[in-house]
Amino acid sequence: MRLLVTGGAGFIGSNFVQFWLDRHPADELVVFDALTYAGNLENLSDLNDRRGYRFVKGRIEDAEAVRRAMDGGEVVVHFAAESFVDRSIVGPQVFVTTNVVGSQVLFDAAREAGVRLFVHVSTDEVYGSLGSTGRFSEETPYAPGNPYSASKAASDLLALAYYKTFGFPVVITHGSNNYGPYQFPEKFIPLFILRAMEGKPLPLYGDGLNVRDWIHVRDHCLGLALIVERGKAGETYNFGGDCERTNLEIARRICELAGRSDALIQFVKDRPGHDRRYAIDYAKAARELGFAPTTSIEAALPEVFRWYADHEPWWRHILSGEYQNFYAQWYAERGGGT
Ligand code: NAD
Ligand code: TYD
């Protein structure tokens, strides 16, 4: 099989590429990625000399570049996106350009190329926020609460409209919060791991009682691989980790792993529009694809902590430059995080 993976130099994309090629060594795979601040070729360095693997640098909004990369591809797995909620609050425009316009350009190129399947990797955040009960199913109405999730929701709706109008063979997936190796340390878990290792304050938003349903990136990749193998065009599938935890619980566990007191936790001004709770009902994926998450966060967090401890050159390198400017401004406004 020949796959095109957009955003394959990012966190989930690079984990997926490794996951797929380990299981399908004879496949051809092209990674198409703009290498924004979040994309890093070091995430794929193990594949450099591998037959059948190729990297192409380009933006998904660039129709000509996308068309060239798509040539001969049978399946597209589309990860490329701006993915961080806080950045979408500071600067929403690029989220619309990449996540909405870029996705539309890709859809058109994929239709033209006649791909067999297009996997549109989206997020549970399109459903908005839950109260203290219930879970998101594929039937939950969309109610995105920030520019990031709104841009992902817009691209999902466009994908579904392309299915209805053109018979575009798209499958939409909604993964819950991922964690694991190669996650850019602006996101909650790796940010707190690195800061706890260095004994720096951990900026916890609001009362710290927001809940996320954590899925290990390996389990998410397993779900996505099942879609490539068995997904049905026009369908949506949710993937969760059965692992609802408050941010405070996770922050305390990270302090423990770092051998630090939880006095490091600093309650800071909340994220505007902060979704309270996410939880995923993945019964459809279980029933139709045989999906089940295999990892609990209690079991996996020590391993993830160790990964970051063992990969200091990787994170020192990507945390230089532009990221520092974002960090300084955002956390200064929240009254913490220095
Ligand atoms: P990431 O930010 O780590 O990686 C995004 C990748 O996309 C980077 O390699 C970046 O260089 C590339 N990219 C960005 N803009 C581009 C453009 N215009 N053209 C080409 N490439 C571009 O993101 P991630 O956490 O790996 O998320 C991947 C996908 O999964 C996203 O679509 C995201 O919405 C979705 N998702 C993420 C989570 C999560 O918890 N991280 C959960 C569910 C779904
Ligand atoms: P994040 O990793 O940004 O994922 P998302 O907002 O897409 O779910 O954040 C996870 C949770 O952690 C979310 O409730 C916000 C919270 N959070 C903090 O409390 N402090 C931080 O510095 C960050 C980045 C996140």
Q: How would you characterize this protein structure?
A:
This protein is of the alpha/beta class. The chain has a domain at 2-179 and 214-239: Rossmann fold (3-Layer(aba) Sandwich), CATH 3.40.50. The protein has twelve helices and twelve strands. Strand 5, helix 5 (147-166) and strand 6 form a beta-alpha-beta unit. Helix 2 crosses helix 4, helix 4 packs parallel to helix 5 and helix 6 runs parallel beside helix 8 (247-258). The longest helix is centred in the first third of the chain and has 21 residues, at 93-113. It starts with a strand and ends in a 5-residue tail after the last helix. Nicotinamide-adenine-dinucleotide is lined by residues 6-7, 9-13, 33-36, 38-39, 59-61, 79-83, 98, 102, 121, 123, 152, 175, 177-178, 184.
* Distance between the first and last residues' Cα: 48 Å
Assembly state (oligomeric): single chain
Counting H and I runs of at least 4 residues, what is the number of helices?
12
Please state the overall shape, judged from the principal axes of the Cα atoms: globular
The poorly predicted ranges are: none
Overall pLDDT, averaged?
96
